[in-house]
Design a protein that fits this description.
Shape of chain A: elongated
Number of strands of chain A: 0
Largest sheet of chain B: none
Number of helices of chain B: 5
Distance between the termini of chain A: 27 Å
Structural class of chain B: mainly alpha
Order of helices and strands of chain A: HH
Distance between the termini of chain B: 59 Å
Oligomer: heterodimer
CATH superfamily of chain B: Cytochrome c oxidase, subunit III, four-helix bundle
Largest sheet of chain A: none
CATH class of chain B: Mainly Alpha
Strand content of chain A: under 5%
Structural class of chain A: mainly alpha
Radius of gyration of chain B: 20 Å
């Protein structure tokens, strides 16, 4: 099997898992007070965005691919 | 009890700890902010130079391979999630789960650094992209990702020390600022990678 296909498959599956996990963590922590927890919430939101981006990149929906000649 | 009095009786939270925690947190946030400025300087310099270039990527430089980079990114983002759950479990007194998530975070971080080394070797030996010989792209790519890789490597060492400290009982459910700082640092390197992955591989 093509190595790139395996890498993309793992990236997509892992990305979905990480996105879902960070979203659940964000939901659970939504009402926690304190400066550190506010920062954690921002970081978790950015982590979710990162996981979505990596998933889309793995699925070749995002990325600077070479232009066709 | 005076403000400076420290109680060391079992189960009690140190008064001094409670009073200085916010100041220490602010100090650590300032450290993160200085690191953010460092990365921002390099990122904006790269974006400026890229926008002024006639052709991108420069002649002779191939497009970066995105499949492995996406996989490696997911590994790092996954480590951010495990680190978050490590801290949450420590706060709730689940030490075994904490240790499991912490070890997972350290292993995922080490995997990311190894993956970056693999990508470097592929770029240098197969694609002939080097730090000094591939123009703006080579120097910007290796400087920024190298600086980030250094941060991840230091983070892996930092988290390993935190794990050893917690095994030796230095932290408690109430007193664990070191773990909070470690989590903040680890989330920071994750978020920086979101930016670096986007600017080098996606746009």
């Amino acid at each position: 099997m093509d190595l790139h296909l395996i890498e993309r498959g793992i990236a997509i599956a892992g990305g979905i898992l990480v996105a879902a996990t960070s979203l659940v963590a964000l939901k659970n922590d939504w009402h926690t007070p304190g400066l550190d927890n506010q920062v954690f919430k921002v970081m978790l939101a950015l982590l979710f965005i990162g996981a979505v981006i990596a998933t889309l990149a793995g699925a070749t929906l995002l990325g600077n691919f070479p232009k066709a000649a | 009890m005076t403000a400076a009095t420290v109680t060391h009786e079992h189960g009690e939270v140190d008064q001094l700890y409670a009073e200085t925690r916010d100041i220490r947190l602010l100090g650590f946030m300032c450290f993160i902010a200085t690191d953010l400025v460092l990365f921002s300087s390099f990122i904006f310099a790269y974006l400026y130079l890229r926008n002024t270039a006639q052709v991108w990527p420069p002649a002779g430089v191939p497009h970066l391979e995105i499949a492995f980079a996406a996989l490696n990114s997911v590994v790092l983002f996954g480590s951010g999630a495990t680190m978050h759950y490590a801290l949450e479990n420590y706060k709730h007194g689940n030490f075994n789960r904490y240790a499991g998530f912490m070890i997972a975070t350290i292993l995922l971080g080490a995997f990311f650094v190894g993956g970056q080394g693999y990508e470097y070797s592929n770029l240098i030996y197969n694609e002939h992209v080097t730090w000094a010989g591939s123009g703006i792209f080579g120097s910007a790519f290796f400087t920024l990702t190298g600086l980030h890789g250094l941060h991840v490597s230091l983070g892996v060492i930092f988290l390993s020390i935190l794990l050893l400290q917690s095994i030796h009982g230095i932290y408690t459910k109430e007193k664990h600022f070191g773990l909070t700082a470690g989590t903040l640092y680890w989330h920071f390197v994750d978020v920086i990678w979101v930016l670096l992955f986007s600017i080098f591989y996606l746009i």
